[in-house]
Amino acid sequence: MTSVFLDSSAAVPTFRELAAPERAALAALGARLTADPVTEPDAFGRQARLLARELPAEVAESLWAFEERGSDSGVLVLRGLEVGELPAPPPDNPGGVGGRTLLARQQAIVSHALGHMVGYAAEGHGHLLQDMVPNAKLAATQQSQGSRVELEAHTEQCFSALRPDYVVLGCLRGDADAATYAFRALDLLQHVHQSDVMELFRPLWTTLVDESFADFLDTREVRGPFSILSGDVDDPTMLVDQDLMHGITKRAQALLERVLEIYVAHRHAVTLEPGDVLMLDNLRAMHGRSPFTPRFDGTDRFISRGFVTRDLRRSRFARPGGGRVVQASFS
Ligand SMILES: O=C(O)CCC(=O)C(=O)O
Ligand SMILES: [Fe+2]
User: Fold this and answer.
1) Domain named TauD/TfdA-like: which ranges (predicted)?
2) Which of 7, 71, 241, 244 is 20 to 30 A from 151, alpha carbon to alpha carbon?
């Protein structure tokens, strides 16, 4: 038997299409996740973690290989999950209704093969699974509910030490024009000038706080300086935000702009289809999304979004009572 996990030299491809028995097995697991993600987030997370032990071995191995060494693009897409019945599309995202679907329950189980799901009080009302639907008022903003403008390149919560390790997108309804972009730190190194490689590992960039956190944090606060790349040159991690990050010198600012040009020229694009669960490696890669044109008629792109941390303990001070939601004032 070939195993992408046991063969540590095997590359992890972006797409992992489920075989028919795997699809059936995952749907059966999803149906056994009975807690309500909105009203019982803790029980929901615990059940999902237990059920993750029963994932088909080869699916778990793909997820673990992705966790250990990343994929060839910075994302892993499990394709071909059962979506189940779709709720009436929410006009906005306060309810977290997508989290109750069969697809989102499977998404939670898969997420728990990578770590622990957490919510962030400032993002999607703190729900473990947030309804990501285009919002007419936010159409031109840099928030996840934007649509008509490109969502600029970023790593999730670049400004926060409690940033998630993974962003997980469950596609309930797709949009042919909406491409999710990803680009790895490792590939960035292939395209920068040799003399800039060491610069990227120096703390030369500051960042502001994301506007989603404006009700809780001072968005004028300047954080950092940080390096864009950290760790080993063979498997670097990254922090980037086109909207919020600034170089502290002219040369650093020019290098950030060069990074963004390289991203645009070489990024991978994934158009999500119903039944896809996309896992974004928030340490190894930066991401963004193309513009698209919603109709706001109840048939728009509908994504159930979750966040995963590998180390629940690290954010304990920010989760009163040991709950699942990271309070925004600590972000
Ligand atoms: O809509 C997408 O495909 C990605 C949005 C995004 O950046 C996110 O959910 O973190
Ligand atoms: Fe994002």
Assistant:
1) 249-294
2) 71
